[in-house]
Amino acid sequence: MALPFFLRRGVRVANHAVNGRSSKSFVDEGRLDVILSAIRPGDLLLVQFAHNDEKVADPTRYTEPWTTYQDYLRLYLEGARSRGARPVLATPVERRRFDADGNSLPTHGDYPAAMRALAQQERVALLDIEALSLALWQRLGVEETKVYFNWTDTEQDNTHFNPPGAIAVARLVVRELLRTRVLAPRDVVRLRDDIPPSWITWPEATDASDLR
User: How far is 47 from 94, CA to CA, in rounded Å?
Assistant: First the structure.
């Protein structure tokens, strides 16, 4: 949702992300088909999954990192390429988790490594958001990271971002898009500016399944 804040006017973003979906369930629900029916030659398709692929107890969402996860990701890559668009893989952003010594801990198991390997095999640009977000949480520390997640007096959510967190992660994404030369410097604005959290407004959920 914060990505457009860093892109020049004229660079359009179509946000098809839906809460609770895995690389598998997104395809099974026909959501990839919707994207591929609208995507055009020269477009970019940014693909980031893992949080819900990790749900072993849910067969509608679970994928295994080195087999089905990569298989489903290939559907996104092949679909985009077949329509003249450019796919880009992004490793999953890290959750907020620290050990007793204040070290930020990885939480995604083999999924980031599996995506990195697939990107190399398929020669697809990779945005390593997992590594960058882990380093950012480490730099900010145990207390300061609460500012970026849905931490309140009544809720301690270490997975979902509030507006400052969404902006911080979008900034990481844009820096990676520049590093990998997916975007040119002329496409990017405000990269070093403070973005007001008030610029983000959350849409109201219309489907109870979207809250999972």
Answer: 16
CA distance 34 to 37: 5
Handedness of CA 87, 44, 164, 206 (dihedral sign): negative
Distance CA 74, CA 72 (A): 5
Tell me how far CA of residue 119 lies from CA of 10, 66, 174, 178, 183, in angstroms.
28, 13, 18, 17, 18
- List all residues 6 or more positions away from 149 whose beta carbon is below 8 Å from its beta carbon: 96, 157, 158, 159, 160, 161, 162, 165
- pLDDT per residue as tens digits for the range 103-125: 999 999 999 999 999 999 999 99
Q: Within 90-128, where are the H helices?
A: 111-122
